[in-house]
C-alpha cells in the first residue's frame, strides 16, 4: 500500500477513539468491498485483512485453478499455466490465493477510497456527537468560549466538539470573551443541515436545578426533592423544595451554613436573588410562602378559577409585588394560581377605593395602578413619585395629575 494519502486517511480513522473497534472494522471493510464490487463485479472471492493497530490492510483474492482451455470467469478462476507461475506445485481444482495491491485498482479508485473513508469518518463523528449529547440533555456542560457573535456564542468542549449558546439562553448580565470558561445545561440536540446542533442554556430552570444538585448533597442523594423552579434569569428565582426525612430542614440544607451553599449558585447566576421555599400541599400556606418576604394577613382562594386574592397591610404590599412585579409574578408561576394583591385597612383607617375616582381618572390608568397592587387612594400616595413612574411606565404628567386628584380627597 504505497499511496500515502490513503494510509493517512486510514490512520486518521484509526485515531478516532470514540468509535469502537467493531464499527471501525466494519466501515473500513465496507469501503474496500464497495471498490472490489465496482472493479471486479463482486467481492465474494476476496478476503480483507485490516490491522487497526498498525493502520494497514491487505486484500487477498481466491481463485480456482482450471485447465487453460476451460477458463470462463477470470475473476473467480485462474488458468493452470498462470497458477504455475505463482507456484509450480498447483494442480487443476486447487485454490490459488494471491494479494491484490491497491495500485491494481488505479489512481481514480484510490481517490474514491480516500473520499469514501473521509466521508464515513465524518458521518461517524457526527453520529457520535449527536448520540453523546442526546443522552446528556438536562446535564451541565463546561466548555471554553471559542467565538463570540452578536446572536450566539460558540463553545468547545474538552473533545473539541462545537456547542451553541444562543443570546436568548444567556443571562442578561452575562458577558463572555474568547477563552472564558462557561457552564450551561444542554437543552436541545438536533440535526440541522446534516450536522449535529447542540444548544445550551443558562436561563432554563434545569440549569438552576443541576446547580443545586452540585451544591447540595441531600438533593443529589434524593433526600430532598426540588418540586418546581421558576425564574426571571439574572433577577429572581423561586425554588420549592420538599424533604422526605423529617429530620432534614430542606430550606436550611439548600441555603447552607451562613448561606455557604447558595452563595456559589447566586454567583454563577450573576447575583440572581433565589428564594428557597418549603413545599406544602396546604394551598394557603404555599401561596403565603411563595409571596415571601411579604407577610400575608388573609388569603381568599377560588380553586375553580385558580385565583387567589391576597390581603396585606399597607407596608407589605410593595414586598409582595416586588421590583417590577417580579415577586408576585414568580409566586403565581410557582403556585399555578393567579394572585391579586389587596391592601388591608385598619378599622380606623379612612381610605377611598380607586374606582371612586373613575370620573376623574381614566380607567386604563386605574387598571395600571391596580396592576402594581394599588387599589386605594392612600396606597398610591404612599409610594414615591419616581417609584410610581418606574413601576407603571406612566408619564410624569399623568402621575402628577393622579397624585393631585388623590391628595385633594384628603385635604
UniProtKB/TrEMBL annotation:
Keywords: Cytoplasm, RNA-binding, Transcription, Transcription antitermination, Transcription regulation, Transcription termination. It holds the Pfam family KH_NusA_1st. One of its GO terms (cellular component) is cytosol. Residues 138-203 form the S1 motif domain. Gene3D superfamilies: 3.30.300.20, Nucleic acid-binding proteins, NusA, N-terminal domain. NCBIfam families: NusA. Belongs to the NusA family. Monomer. Binds directly to the core enzyme of the DNA-dependent RNA polymerase and to nascent RNA. This is Transcription termination/antitermination protein NusA. It comes from Salinivirga cyanobacteriivorans. The lineage of its organism: Bacteria, Pseudomonadati, Bacteroidota, Bacteroidia, Bacteroidales.
Amino acid at each position: 500500500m504505497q499511496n500515502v494519502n490513503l494510509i493517512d486517511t486510514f490512520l486518521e480513522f484509526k485515531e478516532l477513539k470514540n468509535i469502537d473497534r467493531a464499527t471501525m472494522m466494519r466501515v473500513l471493510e465496507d469501503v474496500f468491498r464497495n471498490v472490489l464490487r465496482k472493479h471486479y463485479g463482486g467481492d465474494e472471492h476476496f478476503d480483507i485483512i485490516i490491522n487497526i493497530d498498525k493502520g494497514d490492510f491487505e486484500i487477498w483474492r481466491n481463485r480456482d485453478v482450471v485447465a487453460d482451455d476451460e477458463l470462463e470467469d477470470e475473476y473467480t478462476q485462474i488458468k493452470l499455466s498462470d497458477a504455475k507461475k505463482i507456484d509450480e506445485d498447483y494442480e487443476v481444482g486447487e485454490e490459488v490465493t494471491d494479494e491484490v495491491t491497491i495500485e491494481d485498482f488505479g489512481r481514480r479508485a484510490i481517490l474514491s477510497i480516500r473520499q469514501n473513508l473521509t466521508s464515513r469518518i465524518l458521518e461517524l463523528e457526527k453520529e457520535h456527537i449527536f448520540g453523546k449529547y442526546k443522552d446528556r440533555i438536562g446535564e451541565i456542560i463546561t466548555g471554553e468560549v471559542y467565538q463570540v457573535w452578536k446572536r450566539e456564542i460558540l463553545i468547545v468542549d474538552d473533545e473539541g466538539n462545537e456547542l451553541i449558546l444562543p443570546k436568548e439562553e444567556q443571562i442578561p448580565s452575562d458577558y463572555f470573551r474568547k477563552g472564558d470558561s462557561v457552564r450551561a445545561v444542554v437543552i436541545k440536540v438536533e440535526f440541522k443541515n446534516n450536522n449535529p446542533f447542540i444548544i445550551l442554556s443558562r436561563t432554563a430552570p434545569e440549569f438552576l436545578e443541576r446547580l443545586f444538585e452540585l451544591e447540595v448533597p441531600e438533593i443529589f442523594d434524593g433526600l430532598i426533592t426540588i418540586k418546581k423552579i421558576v425564574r426571571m434569569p439574572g433577577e429572581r428565582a423561586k425554588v420549592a423544595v420538599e424533604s422526605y426525612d423529617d429530620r432534614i430542614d430542606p430550606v436550611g440544607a439548600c441555603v447552607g451554613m451562613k448561606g455557604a451553599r447558595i452563595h456559589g449558585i447566586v454567583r454563577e447566576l450573576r447575583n440572581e436573588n433565589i428564594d428557597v421555599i418549603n413545599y406544602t400541599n396546604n394551598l394557603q400556606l404555599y401561596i403565603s410562602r411563595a409571596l415571601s418576604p411579604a407577610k400575608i394577613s388573609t388569603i381568599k382562594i377560588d380553586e375553580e378559577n385558580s385565583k387567589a386574592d391576597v390581603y396585606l397591610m399597607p407596608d407589605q404590599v410593595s414586598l409582595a409585588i416586588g421590583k417590577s412585579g417580579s415577586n408576585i409574578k414568580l409566586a403565581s408561576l410557582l403556585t399555578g394560581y393567579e394572585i391579586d394583591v389587596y391592601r388591608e385597612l385598619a378599622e380606623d383607617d379612612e381610605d377611598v377605593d380607586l374606582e371612586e375616582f373613575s370620573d376623574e381618572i381614566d380607567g386604563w390608568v386605574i387598571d395600571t395602578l391596580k396592576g402594581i397592587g394599588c387599589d386605594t387612594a392612600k396606597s398610591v400616595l404612599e409610594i414615591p413619585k419616581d417609584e410610581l413612574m418606574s413601576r407603571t411606565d406612566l408619564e410624569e404628567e399623568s402621575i402628577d395629575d393622579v397624585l393631585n386628584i388623590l391628595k385633594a380627597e384628603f385635604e
